[in-house]
Amino acid sequence: MKAHLKENELNALINLLDDPDEEVYRHVTDRLITLGTSIIPSLEVAWEKTFDPNLHYRLEELIHLIQFETLLKELKRWTKKRQDNLLEAAILVARYQYPDVNTAKINAQIDKISREVWLEMNYNLTPLEQVNVFNHVLFQLNGFAGNTSNIHDPQNAYLNIMLETKKGNPVSLSMLYLILANKIKMPVYAINLPQHFVLSFHKDLLETDEPEQKIRSSLLFYINPFNKGIIFSRDDITLYLKKMNITPRQSHYLPCSNRDIVLSLIISLMHSYELAGLGIRFRS
Question: Does the residue 283 lie in any domain?
Answer without folding.
Answer: no
